[in-house]
Each structure stands twice: as structure tokens, then as C-alpha cells.
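Objective 1.3, modelling of assemblies. Example input:
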Amino acid sequence: MRYLPLLLCLAAPLAAADSYLLRGGTVHPVSSPPLENASVLIQDGKIAEIGQRVSAPRNARVIDVRGLHVYPGMIDSASQLGLLEISSVRETVDVSEIGDFNPQLRAAIAVNPASEHIPVTRVNGITSAIVLPAGGIISGQAALMRLDGWTWEEMELRRSAALHLRFPVIQMASSEAGRGSGRASFAEAKKRHDAELLKLADFFEQARRYQRAKAAATPDFKTNLTLEAMLPVLDGKLPVLITAVRERAVREALLFAGKQKIRIILAQVREPGKQLEEIKARNIPVILGPTLALPLEEDDPYDSAFTLPAELHRAGIRFAFGSFSTSFARNLPYQAAAAVAYGLPHEEGLKALTLNAASIWGVEKEVGSIEKGKWADLVVTDGDPLEIRTNVKHLFIRGKSVGVESRHTKLYEKYLSRP
Amino acid sequence: MPASRIIGGYTIQDGKIVEAGEKVLVPPGARTIDAAGQYVIPGIIDCHSHLAADSINEGSVSVSSMVHIEDVLNPDDIAIYRALAGGVTSALILHGSANTIGGNCTTIKMRWGKDARGLVFAGAKPALKLAAGENPKRRGVPSTPGTEPRYPATRMGIEDVLRQAFTEAKLYRAAWRDYEARAAQGARLLPPRRDLKLEPLVEVLEGQRLVHAHCYRSDEILMFLRAAEELGFKIDVLVHALEGYRVAKEIAAHGASATTFSDWWAYKVEAFDAIPYNAALLMRRGVLVSLNSDSDELIRRLNTEAAKAMKYGNLTEDEALALVTINPAKQLAVDHRVGSIEPGKDADLVIYDKHPLSNFAKVQKVFIDGELYFDRERDLAERAEREARKKALLEKARERQKKAAPARRPS
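Predicted structure (C-alpha cells):
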């Protein structure tokens, strides 16, 4: 304890050195209308000041952003960043564990902070991402990670952001590992689906018994890590991210969540159908799967995936976008852009990538907009981040300038200079 | 050299562009389509697609140059309509990359509603698919137990398969030449036995068939170039060529072109050094480049894939658009017919509501040979009717099922 004041003395100049003033740009706070010719002061990793008259403290580095735009960093609301390097190389893939019920698994601790995908993704303005495990029925705990840090620990925004539940579906053609392969008849597929639903309900029942036994502190109570991991869900502290694509799965997921009285977020909904009203009525947020996707059915309108976000917006449903990818995570803003082309208001597209995503993940007081006191996760661009042609000029994560280099820019520079 | 941008109009007659300019002469009886405030570009061309192909790989042998995509075109593939809705008017439909020498590919136009023959781009030069790298050697080390390994299992073996096959083709060509020369002198001989596998290779040697060579790594690319030079043919198009940027100089010297992805990477080891700057780096070294989809999803937005080459490598708008229009037209040797808006060329045109390199642009109308094949307004207007028709059909099927059900019950 005696050394603490000394440590603080050492820390203070370091923090001051990481102070920046972004001067004279168009600031898009997202939480409020854009400000022309405005500046943002970054201090101690946080946004210290925003406005047209912000003066630079003596040791702040001034970055001229005239003619440029300052946006909050974008959030990929579903990715496999850090869990997967090369999809065809088993040794580099840590997405799906064996077994149907693994609520105890934590994606955060398996995130490779040195993954090449992290800088490749962030240089397009994505500063944090949900990392989603995706095996079995309950896949594990998704983490919200900053896309910068020496270790996974330093990357953590939320070690446990949600429990991922892949809702059982009637699947006739299946090539997924552990779920059988080849084509099953409808009757067989239905039987398997019903059995999985029973198993799921039974698993929640076991968790509740465990919860009661623990509360009762009976002498024969033994810790069970698997069921222990369910307690935050049963207590309503941890949301369950339920992947449900088609109307039937969405309907069954909503029924299940109601019965279990759990807080949920729906993921990868493609066909909400009549469940739209129910989703709205219960104020359930949705993480949209890639908008840049083919229609589910041959006879669906060709633009069905593009128009879905606008449909959700009109219904008053909160939503965010997920890349559900690693190597394509950098294209996250273009998922929103496609939705904007097909009817989603532009500002809603931007919000879904920033503030709305932050609020769905419960971190709206920390990130997602440019507001005083929030972490300085900032992107400086030469245009609209929803447009492909726009370039990211500067990038800050927690107030640190992380640069706009990646494996790709380095290879580019190297081969640009090949004689 | 056509102007890069004209504010004005076009006239189309008998499927061809007659005039393009600020002021055009409107012939009597012509229908006028008002595209004020909108953007017209030449139909997008995809140099690498598998849509409408009912089968892709004849994987049983390493040399399958006897098979033809034209034999397996399915005109009912909905991917055709969806590609149209993304502004694509032509594409080369290829075999997969399971074998060193794949098969004979076909250029089509997205004439949705026509039969299989109606899709074919008549007069387009035929093409042969070759492949190197991970895919063609996969069967050499089978993942399914009990499967007999198929040669080759290494990149060395791939080069060998290629050289063996073309050496055989040269002998075959020599046999025919010899026969023809002697027959011309009046000798009465039996002609050599026709070999349907070698004939396309002879066409390649004669420069009558284009070569599309699937490759990723720079060593594979160089292998293709050198093997072709040794065997006496040209690699017309390096397909994917994700590491093309490492050997851009060598590619340019051979005279090969390249068709690549905008930003795909890391899905396999040989794609780990892929960079989105590939197209720009190749182009700056004088290589003709196009961006392809290889995907029924991506084919619908090649316009914004082109925009990525502006982000990654600072291409101009014209250079970017060329990546999906005139450049692939040149690669498919159909640039005298399509790929730009010029009098005398096929009237394959796309109308967008916003600048086609913007993410916010939507295709409004697509013309092929002057005929309207996609119309967003019409598509939207017909949705309710299509939905009603589907409902009626489902109802009918349900009725039929109900009627049939009692008979199936055991008595």
C-alpha cells in the first residue's frame, strides 16, 4: 500500500501522453445530431470534452481532422474473432465444443489476442465485437471484446455478455458435426427436434433444482460447474442469445423464454413472420444475421434479406448487426448499408452498428456514442462509414491510437515496393 | 476511347446499341425509358460463376477435359434471376477445381425465361478450366477412409499431370497432322482414333480455347506460367490468383490476366496471404484484372465489390467499374460484343437509382440484347399475385393430400 502514491505518480504522465485533441472535424455522436467544425478531447482513455470550443491541454497531441468525420467505434454483435483463424484448419478453430449443454464454456479465455483478423477487422472502424461460441444446443458464454489488447484479459469489455442457445430446429438435411448427417425424413427430423426440446427443458429444470439446492445449502450439496453457469441466467442477470432463424423456431423460442422467465436476445432471425408483434410487445432485441445473404427460399423475394432490417425498424424492434464471421467481420458496416438501400433510415443503420448494439449488450454507458465520460473508441474517416469507398484515417480504442495497419496493409506496402 | 460518363441517352435497336450521347436521334416508333437522375452502366460480367450448373466437378479423374458445362445448364436456377437483379448480364460458368484439368466452360447471358440453349452466349470463345493448389490434390489424401487415393497428392504431381496431358495432346495433334498431310497427298489411311479428352487440349494449343487456371499461391501461379510456356500455350486468365500481387511482374510478362476476389481471405491456408489490394497491385503492374463472385450471393453485388478496389489501392471510378464490365469482357474474349456502351455492341445495360459504386444503389432495370429482363417496379408489383398463386398451389396440394390420406390407412 505504501507504494501506491508512487505508482500513481508514474501513471499520471503516461496517461497524459495518451491525450489527444481531434480538432475541427464533423463529429457524429450518434446519440445527438452531428456537430460541424467540432473537436473531441481524449484523456485517460475517455472522451473528456466535445464541442466547437475545446482547447488542447498542454501535453495533448493535436490531430487535425478538418474535412474528416469522427464516429464512435462500431460493434460487431456476433463474430468468431479470435476463436478462428483459418476455417479449414482444425487446429485454428475453437468455435464448437463437443456436447449439447456447455453453459460453463467461456469464449473470452480462448480469444487469441494475436489473431491477424483483429487488426484486419478494426481498421475498418470496428472497435469491439461479441465473440460467439457456436456448438451444441447451449454453446457457452459469448464475450464482448475490445479489438485491442496485449492479452484477452485486456480486451474484455464483458467476459460474459450472453449465453448462446442454438434453438432446436426441425432439420432434414444436416451436415453439422454431432447432429447426424445426410437427409432425414420429416418424421425423423421432427422426432429429433422434439427430443432436443425435451432435453433443453430438462436441462433448465436441473439448473433450477441446483439453484434451490444451493440456496438451501444442504450438507450433500456439491458444486456442479455446468449448472452453476446457469445461475446468472435463472437470476435474470445474464441474457440468453437465442439463435432462431425461421418463424417456427422464433415462435418456439419465445414460448420457451416466456415459460422459463429468462431474458433473451434473438439472433439471426430471418423470417419473423407473425412473431414480429410478440417480439415488439416483449421488447426483445434482435441481432440480425448477415443482411448480405440469399433469400431462404427459392420463391422468396430476391431482396428479402435486404428489406428485413427496415421491417424490424417499422415494427419498433431494437436490433443490431452481426457479421457471424471472422474474415468478413470487417464488412459489418455494409450489412447496414444494404438495409439502408432497401428502406432503413440511414441514422438507424448507424445506430444499429453503435449505440443500439451497445445498449443491447448493456454497455451503453461505456461505449457506442461520442459522449463525455465514455471510453474513447473513436473512428476518424473521410466519409460515411457505411460506404465502401470511405477510408478510416485514425482509430482509437480506449483512448489509445491503435493505427490503421494490418497484415493486409503490411503485405501491400511490401509488395508495392517489389523491384 | 469512349467517354467515361455521359449525361444523355442511348438508342437501342434490334438488340444493339445504335447511338450514345448527350443528344441522340430517336427513331420513330422507339419506346422511351425515362432514366433521368439515374445511372446507366454496361451489364456487369462475372468471369467466374457456377450458377445454373447442375454439376460442377467430375472428380473421378485428374484430367476430365471431356466434360462440358454446356451439357448441364439448368435455366430454371433462381440464381440467374437474382444475378440479373444485381445487374449481371453475362458470366462464365465453370467447373470446380477438383482436378488439374477440369472441363469445358460456357459463357452465358442471364436470359431468364429462356431454355438452356437460350442462355448460351453464342459466339463466345470456349474455355478450359485448369486447377492447382489444395483442391486438385485433395483426393490424393482422401479424408474418407477406404477411398482409393487419386494421383496427384502434391503440387509437384499437379504440374506432372498437366505436362503429361499436354504432351499427350501434342502427340495426338501430330498424329492428326500427319494423317491430314498424307491424306491430302491422296494416301488412303485410317484416321487416328478421336480422343474427346485430348481434343480440347489441342484447341488450347491452337489458341482456339481460352485457359482459365485456378490458383492461389505465387508458386502455383508461376508453375502455370512456366509449364504453359514450355508446352506451347498461353494462360489467358489466372482464376482467384490471390497471391498474384507477389508475381505481378511475371504475370504481366507472360501476358496472362487475372480474375480475383475483392476481399476474401483466410478460409484456407492458401488464402491466408490474400489481401484486398491484390486487384490494384496487379493492375498497377499492367495486368488486366477483373473481380469475380464464385458465389450466387456475391454475384448480386459485384458493383460494390468493385468499389472495394477504390478503398484498397486507390483505383479511380472508371478503373473500378472496368473490373466488372470491360475487363471481364476482354478476359472472356467477348469485348467486341459487351462490356461497354458503344454503338454496335449488344444492348446489355443496367439502370441504377444511385451511383453504381455506392452501397445505397439499387438496380432498377436490366436489359440484355435490348430486351428488358429485370424490372424492379414489375418485380414489386407482381409480388402479391405470386404470393396468392403460391397459396393456391399449397392449398391444392393440401387438399390432394387429404383426399389421398384415407386410402393409405391400413384397414
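The longest strand of chain A covers residues 156-166.
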